[in-house]
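Table S4 entry, RagB/SusD family nutrient uptake outer membrane protein.
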Amino acid sequence: MRRFGLYIMVLLLIGQTSCSRYLDVKDKSEVVPKTAEEFSAILHTRLNNIEQASEYAFFGAYLNTLPFEFYTDNMDANLTISERDIPEYVGSDINSLSGKFGSLYEVIKDCNIVLHELKERDTEFGKKLLATAYTMRAVCYYNLMRNFCEPYDKTRAGEQLGVPLVEKFDMEGKPDRASLKATADFIIHDLKEALKLNQTDKQYLFYADVTNAYLARTYFWTQEWDLAASTAKEVLDAYPLIRGDAYREMLQSEVERKGNELIRSGTKQSEAYTRLYMQRSKQRPVSLDLVKLFTEKERDIRYTFFFDEQFLNTKMLKTSVRAAEMCLVMAESYAHAGDETNALRYLNHLRENRISDYVPYTAQNLPEVNTDALVKVDATGKALTPLMSAILNERRKELYLEFDRWYELKRNGSPVMWWGLSGVKYETAKFMYLFPIPKTDIALNSGLIQNPGYEGL
């Protein structure tokens, strides 16, 4: 990645921590860059943070995967081995999670400066900057949507609350919350604009294939099943599944991006630093409910290195986008669309690359739905079928410790969870799947309606 001596926007970041406050700049001429290289420096500052594993909001440092795993049923909170740096449950971190709101809008501000102030737009270099900024802005809004909005409901998305849409570098703007549908449409628009520019330079991290993967993710979150399946297929075709030693090496790589990972954090972090944080993942054992899903045991390669004999985690911490997720998106999307044949095809495609001597699932031999499982309904609110249950279980296994389970719980019913620790009952209520809008933002803009459950904050 290129380094530039002038990082003109660093001063802009100091003290600007919210959707409204980041616009409070008095003299636009003093802060807007002049050359394409200076605009590039804005983006490279953000991209470098991803590579250094110090970015926590729009892509997520791999260190963030652990708290989000502890918020879910993937780790056994009742058997916490050490309480150092371990949240009891999501409520313990609610203030810091609220802070993601301002952090995401800081990145959006930088993207807006590039998108609307860059003069060199028709050169290859300029197009590369625009495509990267479009994708980064879309990823920010994608994460705002998942963190601060209700799960998407196609039947009422026009009435559900989205987030403020800040499209331009406006020093006076204080937008209200848009609808959830408008928010999703804005994300999709940005991703499509980026794809038109066909940015393929991987030094900018958010190249066209990554953009396409986020488009598949967005269609999936918004229940556009046909579009999710077809877009995910484009990515999967370009990055086929791998198996055996190649798969193990990819997932256990401490800093290097390998295999069919499209993007990952921490590629410029030291291996010693990564190993230090790996120790924190052993402070709670893996949930037995998750362990029991590996019914093929040692024939499933994941069972052999995701955890040890004491069920303590041994899978490498990372934040990434990789091809297996696209395969799972296809399986579930086809199932929702009523295409059982293709749903089984892609479910089995993942399993054949993970399980030796595997037995393909058919409509006749799918496991029965576990009525004691935490997730009882799918993303549309319907009771789980054996096919949907098998797909969700496979996703839980495959993407364990990859920033996924919390959002899967939210997407599929937002079930109430509780556990006891040191004689105290901790409950994750349904409203906690939405993080609160910072009260400082609401004080500045009365149009920012607070999320349910946090009105008294």
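The beta strands are 261-264, 320-322, 417-421, 424-428.
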